[in-house]
User: Fold this.
Amino acid sequence: MSRGIFPLTNRVFRLKISSMTGGINLTEATFPGKGEILIYFTFEDTIKKDEKIKLLNKALKGRLEKRLGLFDFEGKEEQMIVLEGGEWYQIIIMIGAGKSTDFTLAKFKNLLAEATRKASSFKTKTINLFYFNQLGRDFFTIGKNLALGFHLANYQFIKYKSEEIKNQKSKIKSLNIFLEKKKTGFNQAEAQLKNGIKFGRLVAKGVFLARDLVNEPASYLHPETLVAEAFKIEKESGGKIKVEIFGEEECQRLGMGGFLAVSRGSERQPKFIVLKYSDPATKNLSALSLKNKSICLIGKSITFDSGGLSLKPSEAMEEMKGDMAGGATVLGVFKVLGRLGSLGANIADDVYGLLPACENMPSGRALKPGDIVTTVSGKTIEILNTDAEGRVTLADGLSYAEKYLQPGVIIDIATLTGACRAALGKKIAGLFGNDNNLVKEFKEITEEEGETSWWLPLYKPYLKEMKSEVADLKNVSGGRFGGAITAALFLSEFVKKSKWLHLDIAGPYFNSDSPYATVSKGGTGWGVVSLIKFIVGK
Ligand code: BES
Ligand code: ZN
Ligand code: ZN
Assistant:
């Protein structure tokens, strides 16, 4: 092997990340080294000047440039070609990353995920990546996105496949990143990068939990299953998270007439799950905290939505095991909240998580169209369509938060309306809120994290459509249009004191098409990454 073609051959570090344990290992190494797959990022404005490509081309006896020409590969965004790598690597995956000036870490994360998935189609165990300067200098965030891109692309939900098939599914075991060794070493940046990688791995674990819960069939996942998951999270949290469960009787006593009414058609008992994160160690820092107020996350947690007596048609019911995606996201966030502190996250605020968990089923006991229910707030709702159940359970969730917790910020996340999916498609969440700055802040976060959301209006004149003749509100508007907005307006009637955001994730909670970017098939875990960013600022 012709050593020395890379000027830095003897002066590189290899940072190895394991997909199984998340372990990180830094060793001295030589580049290019040998391996199965090399992932190489190129930019359309710098590809012609890229010295390493020239060297790689020379090492491959001119084959690289020929192939790039053959495929018209110019480093444009979404270009990806796979080449034989010659004596160092069996395969080289060239990724087009577009203009280096437009490059973002969210793009990096998504492209790395695409490349990781591509690599796993070759049944390889290890992939290699050459670090590049276009990633910038925020090493913590680089590390976080690196870990997210790699780990999220590696997700599979195969627990119900037969052993034979399971064994055939290959998973990338490790990612090596080659870092040029500067004269001064890589000390401070290295520590930040490593912390970021650990942080990203934890966040990915939260996303995995949310995906797993959404993917789990409704015959195996009930309100009690979410309770068990919450207790597991409490146990793992080392005392930072406390869980309280309200069964039917407590809910009755609290006046949760909406939530209980929705649950009544089911054989399964409803469970109102309350999680509270509070860290005594950072508590006294709360004066320093930007928000200086607690945050309450409320996740729609309908473990199966048949529609109730207003039964859904078959195709519309197919994905309704995932109607607890909001709750799954909240659990995903709590799963890792307690462990982020050691990586420099300052969670001075208390964080609450509420999951009003039940099934929406038809039966002789079920809620009937025309029924009127009373919520914790005292407001009454006329139920005209039992399939608009999420807003009824959330009405009690929101009222409970306002009455008993009085948080500074409430964020509800819900697979609320087919209308939102019709409006924004399957990759964008609807975002509503009663405080413009808060909405802007959150919108920006979702953009940075590559979890797209779009700001929709709480257009007051439409509220009329939700007023009932016989109760304070009705649960459907009766009109065919603007369903995401009227649903959000309905919810807004239960938020009177707090700043509030509402995320309608009926579009992006589930991916029934091919995987793309960091998004696997099935449950996506949409929101975990952004909510963690919102809570801990990283
Ligand atoms: N869970 C559904 C909304 C949904 C639809 C989520 C598709 C994910 C994908 C919700 O409970 C519902 O059924 N909403 C009705 C409201 C209607 C009756 C006003 C809807 O969107 O059709
Ligand atoms: Zn429904
Ligand atoms: Zn629903």
Summary: Residues 1-10, 286-292 have pLDDT under 50 and may be disordered. DSSP finds 17 helices and 21 strands in the chain.
